[in-house]
Amino acid sequence: MSELLENIKWSKDYETGIEEIDEQHHILVNTLNEANKLLTTDYSLENLQNITKDLLSYALYHFEEEEGLMKEYHYEKEAPQDFENHMKQHRDFSHKVVELRDSLKAGNLIEKDELISFLLNWLLNHIDKTDKKFGNFLQAKI
Ligand SMILES: [Fe+2]
């Protein structure tokens, strides 16, 4: 098993400027680092299932928090395209993780690096392209 993935250090570059959102993103990055470490030393179907379960529940909680702020500050009305795109990304990600969990349940393993890079790439790309846009919108309001 390769160990291509390094620990991702939290960086100011990932900040949206909204403290509550940034804290949750930080937790997500730490969770992925921990998952990477655990799978490096103990790769098993059970660990893959626990990791994806915990990640999915925290991601859903986090998406709800962001979407609550969108509602509170009328993101849909003021930036309908950005709102739609953002919601779609949250939904697509949740579906992908549910599909992945179904596949694990059926006994199909996924390589550690494939899992961690999919999750990390999705998260960092979503933060950079989509959450920061919402962060800028919010910062102008509060
Ligand atoms: Fe988001």
Task: Please provide a written account of the structure.
- The protein has 142 residues and is mainly α.
- The chain has one domain: Hemerythrin-like (Four Helix Bundle (Hemerythrin (Met), subunit A), Up-down Bundle), CATH 1.20.120.
- The protein contains 5 helices and no strands.
- The longest helix has 28 residues, at 45-72.
- It is globular.
- The mean pLDDT is 94.
- It binds fe (ii) ion (FE2).
- Fe (ii) ion is lined by residues 66, 86, 90, 126, 130-131.
Give the tags.
142 residues; single chain; binds fe (ii) ion; Four Helix Bundle (Hemerythrin (Met), subunit A); mainly alpha; 5 helices
Q: Strand count, sense and closure of the main sheet?
A: none
Strand content: under 5%
The CATH superfamily label reads: Hemerythrin-like
Q: What is the total number of structural domains?
A: 1
The outline comes out as globular
The chain-level structural class is mainly alpha
Number of helices: 5
Task: Give the second-level CATH assignment, the architecture.
Answer: Up-down Bundle
Q: Write out the distinct hetero groups bound to the structure.
A: fe (ii) ion
Give the radius of gyration.
Answer: 16 Å
User: Kindly state the mean pLDDT as a whole number?
Assistant: 94
* Order of H and E elements: HHHHH
CATH topology: Four Helix Bundle (Hemerythrin (Met), subunit A)
Number of strands: 0
Portion of residues within helices:
over 70%
N/C terminus separation: 47 Å
Contiguous uncertain segments of 5+ residues: none
CATH class (first level) name: Mainly Alpha
